[in-house]
Amino acid sequence: MRFFPRGQLLAALAASLVLAPLAACSPGGLSASKDSPYAPGTARGEGVDGLLVGHRLVEAGEYELALKAYYRAAAKQGATVDVLSAIGSTDLKLGRLGQAEQMLRRALEEDQTFVPAWNNLGVVLMEQNKTAEAARTFQTAFALDSGQSDAIRENLRLALAKVKKSAYSERTEDKQFTLVRRGQGEYLLLTRQ
Q: What's the pLDDT band for 4 if we cut at 50, 70, 90?
């Protein structure tokens, strides 16, 4: 504790009485001066767009927090195609394939021309081994995108290759093969049906 001699204490008290009325003249309050060098505070009632916050959280790998931001955006903006697609895509990142499929289908009910929802739905279907439906989904995304996206083109190519491969393997799995020796060093593969 600091002790002031009586003369200094009276001088300090007189100075505070003179300066107190001047302090009341400044705008003060909660609003900052326009020419203040300090950053402005946040205004109450104005929030940051939940969709934008969610996108940034996804980029940072914070998927659970991104979902919360997307749900806040849905509460504020409504269940728009952007919000539903973002929720579905984040559920996909979290491995929640059933929820992701449901949200992406809801997004496409809102807007059947929304290419990211078509593409991400195709990815979900591929993950669920629904390759034929995934291929059709990627074809729709590719057509709506006019073939501009390399990622969609690659997804479509992979899906079509997997469909072709599974069609071939289904035909060959039903058949049983027998190896028959014909002469010296010659073998013939026969199928039994």
A: very low
Query: Considering the chain, what percentage of its residues have pLDDT values greater than 90?
Result: 54
Side-chain half-sphere CA neighbours of 101 within 13 A: 14
Which one has a higher pLDDT value, 151 or 13? 151
CA 70, 114, 144 angle in degrees (round to 5)? 155
Kind and range of the H or E element at 180?
strand 176-181
**Domain layout of the chain by residue ranges:** 50-181
Kindly report the number of other CB atoms within 10 A of residue 13's CB atom.
11
Assess if CATH 1.25.40.10 describes domain 50-181. Answer: yes
- Amino acid at position 75, single letter: A
Q: At 190, which helix (H) or strand (E)?
A: strand 187-192
Determine contact, residues 139/156, Cβ cutoff 8 Å: yes
User: Phi and psi dihedrals of 189, rounded to 5?
Assistant: -95, 115
Measure the CA–CA gap between 54 and 58, rounded to whole angstroms. Answer: 6
Q: Which of 26-40, 90-104, 136-150, 171-185 has the lowest mean pLDDT?
A: 171-185
Contact 44, 70 (CB under 8 A): no
* Other Cβ atoms closer than 10 A to 135: 23
